[in-house]
């Protein structure tokens, strides 16, 4: 479904992505992991041409995104949603207005917009928050609004750039479970960049490891499921010590 053919991206003299070839399969949750600066976010942004490659091609569903221009490119991009580490919600618009924005831009029929916005907000469990502003929401709620906004135009693919890196463990689990639901119930293919191994192991079917602008390897894994840590502080401590991640001070 998404195929990168020898894709490269340079920033000045610096080669951030070096002739990468990679395919993301229909319906999978594909993780991209690697050290800071390995080129993960750049690779993700090349998939929807937020970064224009210096060389190589990007295919989506057999169509060459890299050869498209204007209206065709805008149309093809509608099938790819994206969410970000810092949510990128518009601060002076309500939750409802944030989710309605991509529908306005894509000229979604005006009469059907309200239903579509409410459907997306229900999917992420935030319909009661429709009149709130982003500043009135928690981090997890903001990311769920961002997911609702990314789903508005019914994408086939959702690109996620460090979607849980600003969140605590419980909120991370909550957002991952929404993403899993997006994949399982809506059939949306997900590509998720994260430096958190736990996040990648909990929901991904295949993982690409990047190193120094190149693909080091792509491996299939069995997702371990999303582990919710009880927010009761005593249970939190027990969970940590049981896993051997910290000792008692
Ligand atoms: N717009 C840009 N201009 C110049 N250099 C950039 C730009 N975007 C990324 N880079 C550089 O390209 C390299 C890869 O960046 P990228 O954000 O893709 O890495 P990453 O693996 O996602 O790392 P991190 O986990 O730290 O975000 C880094 O050295 C970064 O500084």
Automatic annotation (TrEMBL):
InterPro entries, A to Z: AAA+_ATPase, ABC_transporter-like_ATP-bd, ABC_transporter-like_CS, MetN_ABC_transporter-like, P-loop_NTPase
Keyword Translocase: yes
Stretches assigned to the ABC transporter domain: 2-237
Superkingdom in the source lineage: Bacteria
Keyword presence, Nucleus: no
Keywords for this protein: Amino-acid transport, ATP-binding, Cell membrane, Membrane, Nucleotide-binding, Translocase, Transport
A single cellular component GO annotation: plasma membrane
SMART domains reported in the protein's UniProt record: AAA
A GO term, aspect molecular function: ATP binding
Protein's GO biological process: amino acid transport
Family: Belongs to the ABC transporter superfamily.
PANTHER family given in the database record: AMINO ACID IMPORT ATP-BINDING PROTEIN, METHIONINE IMPORT ATP-BINDING PROTEIN METN
Name this protein carries in UniProt: ATP-binding cassette domain-containing protein
Originating species: Sporosarcina thermotolerans
Lineage: Bacteria, Bacillati, Bacillota, Bacilli, Bacillales
